[in-house]
Prior knowledge:
Elements: H1 10-23, H2 27-40, E1 44-48, E2 51-55, H3 65-74
Antiparallel strand pairs: 1-2
Helix pairs in contact: 1-2
Amino acid sequence: MPRTTLTIEDDAMKVAKMHALRHRMTLGQAVSELVRQAAERSLVTEDRNGLHVVRLNRRSPTVTAALVDRLREELP
C-alpha cells in the first residue's frame, strides 16, 4: 500500500475523522473509503428551463425544511 502526504481542507479532515471514529477505522482507511464512495456516485442531471436538476435515486433521503434547519445549526 503506497504512503503519501495529502493537503486537504480543514472541513474535509473533520469529515474524515468523524467517519473514522464512527466506523472504528484508521484515518487512512476512512479517507480511502470516502474517496471510493464519492468516485462511485454518478449524478444524473437534466436541464429544465435553463436550470441543472439533479435526479436522485429512490433511496436518497427526503430533504425537508427541518433537515435544512438542523444542518444550518451545525455550521460553525
